[in-house]
Structure prediction request, 230 residues.
Amino acid sequence: MAQHVALFNAAMSSFDPNNPSDSDDDDVGGVAWNEFDWEHYLREQDDTIHRYIGFYELLLRDENRLEKAAAHMGWRLSSNEADDDDDDDEDDDQGPYTVHKNYIYVALRAIHLKLTREWERIAMNPASVPQPLAVAFSGALHRGESHAVLAVHALDFGDFAMAVSLFKRMFGEINRAIAILDEKAARHSTVLAKYRTEALCMLFDLREISLRMMEDCRGAIELPAEDDFD
Prediction:
């Protein structure tokens, strides 16, 4: 599974612990954006998440789906592998940097969104999903996603110790969701059993990403700051 998240591992290694949000696009050229500008920007970032979902869905049966979805998104493993003609990279360079452009954020949000969207579709029908199970599973997904978003914010602020703690909390909620959606629960209906089959793939992907991020954050904590070399 480690190969699946090579992109995320490399993306983490590109963070500068002393200035993790360092970007030429951290501002908007001195021009203040209005509500319309930000709405347009956020819609573009929503499109990025949905584009990732599209690739991820096509690759769901592929054991290397995370890495291949990242490749389809045009995310590169390192600056040495940049393609000057890559239109996706040009799109990513437009506008200021926000957490919405973080590759890890995009992948985590996209997978959570796919899980939640399909769960909401079936969970409203008690014949398909027992209502206590529907509430419990939804709660675990929501808490896990909240921890994931906060963890990526911690990454961008360079607080890798906090990121580890938040990814651990995300990991715990994902484990809770897996336990809720066990084989016994899936016997309630064929619809639930079918959902469980695909959901487990996505839940294990989320868990794998959180594990790799914790490993990389712990590695970053052990690295000396640039000032130590002065």
